[in-house]
Every structure is written in structure tokens, then in C-alpha cells.
Amino acid sequence: MKKASIILGLIFAIIAVILAVLPLYKLAFIPGVLAFIFGLIAFLKAKKDAQSTHLIQVVFLLTIISLTLATYKAIYSVSEVGDTKELEQTEQKRKEEAKEELEDIIITD
């Protein structure tokens, strides 16, 4: 059970770090929490059997890094919606320019 918890914790921690770096940072919380839970289970089993906890510490380190990065991105990333009036004006201007270019073309038979 301890080895399975360590492996699952490590896999979820790596997935959480990858998702935290990508634009899908909001999805990093799910594997981050799962990695923390499996790391905690492995830590309690290792503590009970008085075994080494070095790999479990790596799981916790990766989990903390991913959750910190995802939280930072969630707080400080701003999604701005552009001014639609400006976009409509530039679109209208481009249409007018395209019409003028088409009117200036001389077609010869």
C-alpha cells in the first residue's frame, strides 16, 4: 500500500506541476489535492513502519510547487475583454477599404 501511494502521489504531483505551468492551471488543483492525499497516506505508512520518507518529501515538494503556482496564476491572471466598439469600428473600416480597393480595380476584357 505504501509503494502504491508513493507512485500515485508522484504521478499526480507531476501531472499537477505540468498543468500548473500550462494555460490549464485551474485543472492543476485536482491532481494536486490527490497527490497531497496519497503523499499523506504514504507518509503515515512510512512513519508507522519507521522507513525512509525521502521520496514522499519529493511528492510533497512537487505538490506545494504546483499548488502555489496554480494559486498565483488564479489570483493574478486577468482576462480582459476588449472594447467591442473599437473592434466593430476597425472591422467597418477594413470593409470600407476593401470596397475602395475593389472599386479601383479596372477589369479589361
TrEMBL record:
Its transmembrane ranges are 5-22, 28-46, 58-76
- Feature: compositional bias, Acidic residues: 99-109
| Composition-biased stretches (Basic and acidic residues) | 83-98
Span list, region Disordered: 83-109
Which UniProt keywords are given for this protein, alphabetically ordered? Membrane, Transmembrane, Transmembrane helix
According to UniProt, the name of this protein is FUSC family protein
What species is this protein from?
A: Olleya aquimaris
* Lineage per the UniProt record: Bacteria, Pseudomonadati, Bacteroidota, Flavobacteriia, Flavobacteriales
